[in-house]
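Page 37, continued from 36.
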């Protein structure tokens, strides 16, 4: 087992890794930018090292600074968390070359799955269904119109190296095709230093279902069941739950087996997810593989009673999985809401000083956060400040507990999306589990129409 782990991240995920390390008896090192000196991950780690100024490129994305910090403090492993360098194949490769264990999959796996076109080809070869689309990147515009016509409009242009909705354009008609490709290429080049794009058939309102996977270095791989991730805005998730309200045992078996085939196709090690689109006719398609721990991993922990971060560390240290697929079962239901420092009406980030922070509690409530009263939410990083997770024996109980927790959660000094989260879970479509990736579009459209009809002003915009 490792003696000291450096955490190449910040915020709640850095704290989450610290708690797992403490239970395993492992010392921790927090790296931080010069504006993060008062962060809780710095306070609770055994050691801390400043690695640069506020800008991520000069600190949390600075490979040389992080590796140097690990060598100075004598860390024998690095946990990248999620975001920043978590899915950076170069970083994983440098760690290996420096004799530092990377707590995640191998660099080659990250590279192959990070290239969406290569990931599609790999899954096609393995027999995993993929969304119909181009076989490779679009080198020229020639032939694209015929391909799009054969797929049937709408189609979607995607960045080969992309994620998070960047470098992505939905095309409704042939007249919009060329402009969408050019815009997607420009955004992809600016975001990922690669302007390669490809095209897929656009599924109008599928469910976004992902399967948590876990593999070791001995060829063992399991899935830890599914998560429903359809509630999202501009391809950014807002709420997730496990299991999915649409799932029956037969569909779970088929999708779970496809996830395992996908994982074995790349000899997957450590924690990751296989993401699928589930169409309204029951067909499902591979979308991508995330080669890291997910933001929403707590809901899987709740229903499997496993500590995924501790499992990550054990696997990276060379231990074999201590359970098989048949040993795993689902216990109850869990729902996670992402609490963001943003205006719930305009969605603009709202950094600033938190003057009051009263977290909710009670049976079945978990809060993962690095925020506190007196903490300043910085404008340099992601706006998520907390993950509120509820569990129950049934979906109804988990939902009731989440509603209670949202009502009791007090954050003052900045605007947050707490009112929006309460509105989402009270929506009839959410309560009934009738979800799809258009859920938020429909909710916001209904809200806008209601406000125009009644002449209302946004009920919860601005600073409390």
């Amino acid at each position: 087992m490792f003696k000291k782990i450096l955490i190449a991240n910040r915020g709640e995920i850095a704290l989450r890794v610290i708690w797992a390390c403490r239970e395993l008896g492992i010392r921790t090192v927090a790296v931080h930018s010069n504006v993060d000196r008062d962060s809780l991950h710095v306070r609770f780690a055994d050691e801390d090292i400043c690695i640069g100024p506020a800008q991520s490129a000069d600190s949390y994305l600075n490979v040389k600074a992080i590796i140097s910090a690990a060598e100075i403090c004598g860390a024998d492993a690095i946990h990248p968390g999620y975001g920043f360098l978590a899915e950076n194949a170069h970083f994983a490769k440098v760690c290996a070359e420096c004799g530092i264990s990377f707590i995640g999959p191998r660099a080659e796996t990250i590279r192959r799955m990070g290239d969406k076109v290569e990931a599609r080809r790999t899954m096609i070869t393995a027999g995993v269904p993929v969304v119909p689309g181009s076989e490779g990147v679009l080198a020229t515009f020639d032939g694209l119109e015929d391909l799009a016509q054969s797929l049937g409009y709408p189609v979607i242009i995607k960045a080969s190296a992309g994620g998070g909705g960047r470098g992505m354009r939905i095309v409704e008609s042939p007249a919009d095709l060329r402009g969408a490709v050019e815009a997607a290429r420009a955004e992809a080049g600016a975001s990922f230093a690669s302007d390669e794009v490809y095209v897929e058939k656009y599924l109008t309102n599928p469910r976004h279902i992902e399967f948590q996977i876990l593999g070791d270095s001995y060829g063992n791989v399991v899935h830890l069941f599914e998560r429903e991730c359809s509630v999202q805005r501009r391809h950014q998730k807002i709420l997730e739950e496990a299991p999915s309200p649409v799932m029956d045992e037969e569909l779970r078996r088929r999708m779970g087996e496809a996830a395992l085939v996908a994982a074995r196709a790349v000899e997957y090690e450590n924690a990751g997810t296989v993401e699928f689109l589930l169409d309204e006719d029951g067909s499902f398609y591979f979308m991508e593989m995330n080669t890291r721990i997910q933001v929403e991993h707590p809901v899987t922990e709740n229903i499997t009673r496993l500590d995924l971060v501790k499992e990550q560390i054990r696997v990276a240290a060379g231990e074999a999985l201590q359970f098989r697929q048949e040993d795993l079962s689902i216990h109850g239901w869990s729902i996670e809401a992402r609490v963001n420092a943003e205006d719930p009406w305009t969605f603009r980030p709202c950094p600033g000083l938190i003057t009051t922070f009263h977290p909710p509690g009670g049976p079945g409530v978990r809060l993962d956060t690095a925020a506190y009263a007196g903490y300043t939410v910085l404008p340099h990083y992601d706006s998520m400040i907390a993950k509120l997770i509820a569990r129950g024996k049934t979906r109804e109980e988990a939902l009731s507990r989440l509603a209670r927790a949202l009502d009791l959660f007090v954050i003052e000094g900045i605007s947050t999306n707490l009112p929006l989260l309460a509105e989402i879970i009270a929506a009839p479509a959410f309560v009934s589990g009738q979800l799809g990736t258009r859920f938020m579009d429909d909710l916001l459209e209904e809200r806008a129409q209601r406000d125009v009809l009644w002449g209302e002003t946004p009920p919860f915009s601005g600073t409390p």
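The longest helix spans residues 249-265. Flag for discussion at group meeting. The radius of gyration is 22 Å.
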